[in-house]
Specification:
CATH superfamily of the largest domain: K homology (KH) domain
Distance between the termini: 20 Å
CATH class of the largest domain: Alpha Beta
Oligomer: single chain
Order of helices and strands: EEEHEHEHH
Shape: globular
Pfam families: OsmC (PF02566)
CATH architecture of the largest domain: 2-Layer Sandwich
Largest sheet: 3 strands, antiparallel
Number of helices: 4
Mean pLDDT: 88
Low-confidence stretches: none
Structural class: alpha+beta
CATH topology of the largest domain: GMP Synthetase, Chain A, domain 3
Radius of gyration: 18 Å
InterPro entries: KH_dom-like_a/b, OsmC/Ohr_fam, OsmC/Ohrsf
Number of domains: 2
Protein name: Osmotically inducible protein C
Strand content: 25-35%
Strand order of the largest sheet: 1-2-3
Length: 139
C-alpha cells in the first residue's frame, strides 16, 4: 500500500507540500490565485508519472527481450475537451493525454511496433484508463 501526505495552509497559498516516505516535494498551482511558481502543478506530476512509467516499462521490456533499445523518450500533452467533442468520446471523457514516442536504437520495424504496444501497458497508464475509486474519510 502506498501512502502520501499532502498539506497546505493559509500562509502557503496555493503551494502544497507532499511527503512520500523520506522524500518531499512542492506542488504549486501557479496559474491561480497566489501560486508562486515554486514547483510543478498537480497535473504535471500526473503527466510525469505517466511519462516515467512509460519509458521505464519500455526499457525493462527491451532488456528482457535483449533488444537494442538505446533510449526511449515520450512527450506528453494534455488537453481538456468540452461540448460535443467530449460527448462523443468513449465514456464522455473530458481529458486527453497525447503520447509521442521516440525510440532510439537499431530496432526492427516489428520491434518498434511491439514497443509502441507495450508503452500503453505501463501500470500508471492502466490505472488512469481504468479510473480510480477515491474514498474520503474525515477525521
Amino acid at each position: 500500500m502506498s501512502s502520501v501526505i499532502a498539506s497546505a495552509d493559509r500562509s502557503t497559498g496555493m503551494v502544497a507540500t507532499v511527503k512520500m516516505g523520506s522524500q518531499s516535494m512542492k506542488i504549486d498551482e501557479s496559474g491561480v490565485a497566489t501560486g508562486e511558481d515554486t514547483g510543478p502543478g498537480p497535473m504535471d506530476y500526473i503527466m510525469s508519472a505517466l511519462g516515467s512509467c512509460t519509458v521505464i516499462t519500455l526499457q525493462m521490456y527491451a532488456q528482457r527481450k535483449n533488444w537494442p533499445l538505446e533510449r526511449a523518450q515520450v512527450t506528453l500533452q494534455q488537453r481538456t475537451l468540452s461540448g460535443l467533442e467530449a460527448d462523443l468520446t468513449p465514456g464522455n471523457k473530458r481529458t486527453v493525454i497525447s503520447k509521442t514516442l521516440q525510440l532510439t536504437g537499431d530496432l526492427t520495424p516489428d520491434q518498434i511496433e511491439r514497443l509502441k504496444d507495450i508503452s500503453s501497458r505501463c501500470p500508471v497508464q492502466r490505472t488512469l484508463e481504468a479510473g480510480v475509486l477515491i474514498e474520503t474519510t474525515l477525521v
